[in-house]
Amino acid sequence: MTSGEAHLEVLPSADWAAAVAARLVARLAAHRNLRICLPTGETPAPLYTAIVAAEHRGDVSFAEATLVMLDEWLGLPPGDPARGDEMLRRELIGRLRVPPARFVAIDVDGPDPAAAAARHDREAAGLDLAILGLGINGHVGFNEPGSGPQDTTRVVEVAATTGEIASTRYGASVTPHAGITIGLARLLEAREAWLLVTGERKAEMLYRALHRPESRDCPASYLRRHARLTVFADEAAAEMLPDAGARRSPGPSIPTHPVI
Ligand code: PGA
Q1: For ligand 1, what atom is nearest to the CA of residue 136?
Q2: Which of 37, 43, 137 to mutate to test the pocket of ligand 1 (most atoms within 8 A of CB)?
Q3: Atom 9, ligand 1: which residue's CA is nearest?
Q4: How many angstroms does the Cα of residue 110 sit away from the middle of ligand 1?
Q5: I want to staple 178 with a disulfide (CB 3.0 to 4.6 A). Which of 64, 74, 78, 185 is the partner?
């Protein structure tokens, strides 16, 4: 596999969401039918707010785009507030004036989760853009520590700390212990990958992901194998990175060059 060097953009925290949104608007302007994989969580929430505002202004449309979920809990009932499909509808899809051409949720309500994972693996093939968050434990999606670069989309156990976030932060009706996630193999095959990282609490893990030897202890470290990985970090998340100051981007006015 070819190894690329991550392109790092360090943005002031106040500008981070607008800058990443501007980049996504540019991608969609150039290619309206993108297949994009989307995460849920605290990190992308302000990005989704900025994207919705851009769509309401008429700057962007998802009408021809396909949105594919990155991961989903097993064991939470439909409509549970912590479900990934609920969160994406609440924060992004349900707020768009024109819905995406397709929203590909992960079917976790059927009798056969392994079969649902295999179906989602086919949906995850051929992504144009994988938008990802970084877990405090180094996970990407539910590719928890122990995951490797050959992993495909599958049923996984989630770390206890990950499951607890569903109940403590998002009010899940039960604490989930498992989920389905797009695997690193598919994320590495996407034409482009963006890793979104904000906040001081992610600083050490971002340093490990980008600067320590790649390791199953930090699955995000394998993303460095991607030939077109951009890390969008705010200043707090970037504080442990060498040269973060030198790489600081001037903010949302940075010129964007759609390259897909
Ligand atoms: P967060 O989660 O954005 O809610 O911090 C990221 C992740 O755990 O993947």
Answers
A1: 8
A2: 43
A3: 135
A4: 26
A5: 74
Joined together, the tokens standing for residue 134 give 């970084």
Please give the model's pTM, rounded to 2 decimal places.
Answer: 0.93
In sequence order, what are the residues at sequence separation of 6 or more whose Cβ sits closer than 8 angstroms to the Cβ of residue 223? 6, 132, 140, 184, 187, 188, 193, 195, 209, 229
Distance spanning both ends of the chain, measured CA to CA: 20
Residues having CB within 6 Å of any atom of ligand 1: 41-43, 133, 135, 139
pLDDT at 82: 97
Residues recognised as catalytic = 71, 137, 139, 144
Q: What's the pLDDT tens digit per position in 227-255?
A: 999 999 999 999 999 966 656 665 443 33
Which residues are CB-neighbours of 232 under 8 A, at least 6 positions away? 9, 11, 16, 19, 20, 23, 194, 195, 196, 197
Q: Which atom of ligand 1 is nearest to the CA of 41?
A: 4
CA of 191 to the centre of ligand 1 (A): 23
**In terms of Cα–Cα distance, which of 101, 126, 106 is closest to 116?**
106
pLDDT tens, 23-78?
999 999 999 999 999 999 999 999 999 999 999 999 999 999 999 999 999 999 99
| Locus of tokens 């442990």 | 240
Which amino acid is residue 169, in one-letter code?
R
Per-residue pLDDT band for 5 (boundaries 50, 70, 90) equals confident
Distance 52 CA to ligand 1 centre (A): 20
Closest CA to 7 of 185, 236, 159, 232: 232
Tokens 């849920």 found at: 40
The ligand 1 atom at the shortest distance from the C-alpha of residue 132 is: 9
